[in-house]
Amino acid sequence: MNITNEQLYNKRRYFLKLGAGALVSSALVQSELMALNFFPDPNNEKLKLSDEKIATNYVNFYEFSTDKKRAVELAKNFNTKDWKIEVSGEVEEPLTLTMQDLLTFPLEERIYRFRCVETWSMVVPWVGFELRALIEKCKVKSEAKFIKFTTLFDKNQFADQASFFPTLDYPYVEGLRLDEAMHPLTLMAVGMYKKPLLGQNGAPIRLVVPWKYGFKSIKSIVKIEFTKEQPKTTWELANPREYGFYANVNPNVSHPRWSQANERPLGDFFTKPTQMFNGYEKEVAHLYKDMDLKVNF
Ligand SMILES: Nc1nc2c(c(=O)[nH]1)N[C@H]1C(S)=C(S)[C@@H](COP(=O)(O)O)O[C@H]1N2
Ligand SMILES: [Mo]
Which residues does Mo-molybdopterin bind (predicted)? Predict the structure, then answer.
């Protein structure tokens, strides 16, 4: 893998300075995660951003706790030092990417709608790079049809992983079909609200797939594998009747225990109708044109 610094500098960049030294040399070492430089999103759709305080305090991160507030507290000291992502599976040569490597991909702000399967929703200005940029560097074999992501497993950091009866079968695993992963909307996020991700939101790097229910957007990724077979994902294993592999936002397919017809934007009192593919139908419907979305939910 050979990502060059030129990529960072061959275009005009917008710098966000959060401290002295932010502009010094390459914004490429761990501490310089503090200095995210990215192309801003013009927000052509005029989406109303969720309040930053709410979006960073109302979280799902079961490894810490199923209690949203408790997860935020426990995530305060999340240690992401020397973070790496291992890339393996159906590739010509496995590789290990440091955050330094990962931050050489061109960063963009992306203002996306985000819809949790629990029916709350938000609009978040993420900062990240397209997953396809990473995939294109990986010399993926033609046999690869899926991509599998794994979250950190560390009982010293994740209270629920250390508990006698963990809530989920950890490590948390998610997956996408390769064409979904290559879609330009699919983002690897390293920041939100112009700042590096906080522990509770999936620091230092997470997936964001805006047309799918939030549980697909796996946090704190340490492993990426290319596979021939559809990976078994954590929520599917936990309850296949309730959580499918595809998990596309769909107002017409109810969760077995509640309707998905409406959603409540965080901070709002009233609900509003759920949009097909969370409002990204024009961009992604073609990926599923031959599929029965009631079966492949
Ligand atoms: N590793 C991991 N990733 C995860 C989760 C989790 O518990 N563990 N929760 C998921 C769910 S259900 C949602 S809705 C989103 C929430 O992202 P947010 O807390 O940053 O809003 O993260 C997803 N990614
Ligand atoms: Mo969720």
Answer: 62-63, 116, 151, 201, 206, 217-219
